[in-house]
Amino acid sequence: MKLITSIFLVLLIFNSRAEGQNFVIPRLEPETKALEFYKLGRKNSSQPVYTWTEFAQISLWASGDNTSSNFEKIRTMANNVINSKELPVSQKEKAEFILTYLHSNVLKTYQLNQTRVDIILSNGRYNCVSSAVLYMILCEAAGIATSGVVTRDHALVTVHINGEDIDVETTNRYGFDPGNRKEFHDQFGRLTGFSYVPARNYRDRQTISKIELVSLIINNRISEHEKQNRFTDAVPLSIDRAALLLGESLADNSAAGPQDSLFEDPRKELMERLFNYGAWLLRSNREEDCIRWANAASVRYSDPDHWQEFAMAAVNNRIARYIKENKTAEARDFLSNQKINLTDSNYIQLDNLLTDAELLRRANQIKNLSEGDAVVSAIEKERRKIGEKRALELRTFSVLKTASLLSAAPDRNWNAAIQYIEKALSDFGSNRDLEHALITYQSNLATDFHNRFAAEWNRKNYEEAQRILNEGLSEFPNDRQLLADRDIVNRNQ
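Structure (tokenized):
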């Protein structure tokens, strides 16, 4: 007999671990410095404006460095550039000189994900973001205006000199004004060759502010934490990044930025990080912790629909796990306890799914006629909850299982099974599966009459054989085997 599987929804089931005991809600308020830096840049302007020293301090804070030693390194570096005897007079040549200075004295090894400024100062490892930030700091110290540029997978700098905007690929020693050929001469002034960095044809690019470029340092740190499943560390950083860019309005979703921006709206990205933590709790089978997280975070960062999705998924997953372990009573208790965290419609949906699972469990455990009748009655009582189609499936399964028990060995009471199915057809109407089963049981009963007849006939108990045959023909007058048996009797009379 084919076992009917439950339609219970399972969203995410992974390795389990204990809940509640060690769960600590990650910090939900921004670090004080994040808000201070936001206000600092707007003390005299509605748009963020920072001095190069402030910019340097923020870049180190964004890198996770709260010491003063690296700031002093940057200050010394800036003074060395500004006071260098080799510093050109023109702003354009100064900007190119600073790039050369960095690659000669600071930038040593390219490393794809190394966005932190403090790491550059420590070992010279850099990527497009960290080298761009340090380059911008030195340019601003030298009085050269800059802005950041982002593409789909890259960052660079634009310097603004005498009305001209010049791109700078800071990851390349010769990346000043890409696409222009640079001449090199020996000590006697003779031309020795050229260096050429081709201009990259960025199909999509967006100019961003210096502080937005710095925020990418934090963004990369967040990504690294998430790759290592350190979501409790990623959440506070996400909040600090949003506060750096948005101030106290970081939780205001009513002012979301453009959806097609390469620099994703900080509010949207913050919410995604908060949801990532909830998803990780779900993947870890920490459903109750996920609910605690949704309840705590939703107070500060409102998004009712998405937080309700987490509550729904968490309750559903835990119930599904109980069902898999055949613990429907525990599942029912858990759902009741979590009702406060669900919308009415979601609670009803889960209640209906749990009712389905409870009925399926009972149907699978039918052992006798009375249990079969009880399950069929329960299905009828709950059919509005589980739906007519599902009620039909479960009822059919229950009737067939009960009939199979009635006709099981050693008694082989085919007649009891036939009567049980006939009653079900009378009570609930036509049913193809039950009608096919009825034909099978009737065929089995007819075969049983034939076998009993043949046994008595072979023993030469002709009178008993005749009685059995007549009984069978009275019930199955058109059965071919029984009609053939009658022919045998007639030929031997």
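Residues 1-18, 184-196 have pLDDT under 50 and may be disordered. The first strand starts at residue 109 and ends at 110.
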